Amino acid sequence: MATLADIDGWTPNLDLSGGYDSRLVLAAVVATGTNERYTTRTVDHGPRYAGDYRVGVSLARRFGIRRERDRLPPTTEEAEDQLTLWSATLLGAYDAYGPARTTRAHSHRFGLTGLGAEIHKGQWGWRTIPQLLDLAVKGGPAREALAAQLDKGVASIGADPALRDASELYYLGYRNGVHGSAGHIGVEMTTVHPVMQLHLARLAHTPAEGRRRRPGVAFRGSAAGIADHTILLAPDVAAHEYDDPARNLDRSYIAERLRVLGGPLGGVEPLTVYGRPDSVVDGPSDLSMSIARDLDLVGPIAAEPILARAERALELLDDLELRTAYEATFDNARWRVERQGDLRLAHLSPARMSMLEVFRLAS
């Protein structure tokens, strides 16, 4: 955090919420005394997340960090770039549609997030691979296909599928990398996830005795390490209210954890930086964009054209079981679009149908 704040002409900006993860990054900012060089972005996602937004704003005010505007500026690219960019980057391999623009929203800015805390807390419940498979799908061809892929994936990272933490090892090997980069990698490569540290992952996979409901005593599958780390860096940041009152840490608890952990941590000097971030290339590769255009993957990411293209792709499936599975996905996609109105809020099924078209065209 100290190093990023020390680079002339660039501003580090933290996506700040009311939970544990981004707060750990904020604690590092406060611990290094670089508050005035940072900005934050808190996004209002509506009434359901009102508490998260309110606490994010109050954190920025409490610790003197300037807030950017709440929402990204409108995109300026031509509509035909939207489907092309998605096809050249995410391609249905990650959640829904995005990124929404072909150029970065802000120049000379390091984006910072709390992504990566999942490698410590766990994302899939610390299960064996058979248990993870049972959680995902109960039977039929989809289960057989997923089982085959899980077997290949676990073997490729050298894990035993019967291990109690196999699901999280699999997460580290596959989902974590996509989850940590999908929102920005197709547009710019100067977003940083400071919590994505190998040491935290290693700590999470160290056996621990017992489980406690309160954070503070580390065990697999908890936010304990994230909370402790925040306490070690900046006790005042850890003591500030959270989006969920059940997460709040009182002063006596924080003092006890500091005593046990031997904190707080001391100051650090910025690292030496060689080169300039200005020289890092932005945007998707010309090759991937050209391939997508050659496959006629152009046009807006809008409900009517996307569903029409998906229906045409569906008609070309010869295998009855595969077609039946995708017909259910298509029906779900159409229902979600009608319900949500906005295709980008329609969850996964519309993007899965677009991915089917990509495979058809590429074959």
Describe the protein.
The protein is mainly alpha-helical and about 375 residues long. It folds into two domains: about 180 residues, no CATH class; about 110 residues, no CATH class. The chain is built from 17 helices and five strands. It has a five-stranded parallel beta sheet, covered by helices on one side. Strand 2, helix 3 and strand 3 form a beta-alpha-beta unit. It is globular and about 65 Å long.
Unreliable stretches covering 5 or more consecutive residues: 71-78, 210-218
> Strand arrangement, largest sheet?
3-2-1-4-5
- Count of separate structural domains: 2
How would a crystallographer describe the biggest sheet?
5 strands, parallel
The tally of helices reads 17
Helix content: 40-55%
Estimate what percentage of residues fall within beta strands.
Answer: under 5%
Going by helix content, strand content and strand pairing, the class is: mainly alpha
Secondary-structure element order, N to C: HEHEHEHEHHHHHEHHHHHHHH
Q: If you average the pLDDT, what whole number results?
A: 86
Radius of gyration: 22 Å
The rough form would be described as globular
Tell me how many strands there are: 5
User: How far from one another are the termini?
Assistant: 46 Å
